[in-house]
Protein: Putative Fe-S protein
Amino acid sequence: MAALTLSELHVYPIKSAAGIALREGQMTARGLQYDRRWMVVNASGKFMTQRQFPKMALISVAIGDQLTINAPDMPELSVPLEISPKISPEISPESESHRQVTVEVWGDRCEAIALGTESKQWFTRFMGIDCQLVYMPNHSHRPTDHGRFGDDQLVSFADAYPYLLISEASLAGLNQRLLEKGEAAVTMARFRPNLVVKGCREAHEEDTWQQIRIGAGVFELPKLCDRCSIPGVNPHTGIQGQEPTKTLATYRYQNRGIWFGQNCIQIEADQRADQPADQPAGQTAAQTAAQTAAQTANQTLMRLQVGDAIEILRYKTP
Structure:
């Protein structure tokens, strides 16, 4: 078997917005640092994605001292990277910024922090619907895949899992089929993985992996990724199309899903716990308990680097 390596590393700070390619990334208990810690929600607090709003693909972000946000025909917007809630008994326009709210993502309800009037106006103008940007603080408690792995295995605003892995060979296999049909090849950006693997001899070898080591981190791969309509969104135009989903369905449809890539959870690393963020004044007992229960979200774990060796520790049983 050819040597397997980590060839690409990506984060998507705002759920369903464009991603950022990294040379190295810091792992946390919710996934890679900054990955899907921000989310756009409608007036009811429900998550918004490219499934209904494909133009979200045109929202680009950059990480520096702040999170910088851009989109076509919009002024640049900057928001803090680390945010703590302001607990206020009265909500007024002056206290909108950084107030705590409850949001919903795939049936999970969890605490978030509203980013305030300026960002709300920015996203409402771009999206054409009343909405706002929210941030997931460290004390917010959202278990992976609705608690399938226990209350302490956390996830950010990602759909269900903290990591998504895809091999270059799987994308190459898809592109071969697209080209044979006279369709244009697609890039890995369509599938929004965090981890891209180089060195597989055949497409979808990752389907057979149960446990792997990347660098010093060990991951379980408990579930294939069931693809929605988002791979059909052109990341450069924000326009929804039929491909590559139509072609994927011809050979990857099974058990009422179209499967492409592996969801991952981290199960082992060199853990070094950071101190949790300061608890805001006025926090309730329930919020304090949630913050204590979610202290693993503050743990700073190891770093992943492009070029890290990947070792298959265990294969799935047939």
Summary: Residues 168-180 form the longest helix (13 residues).
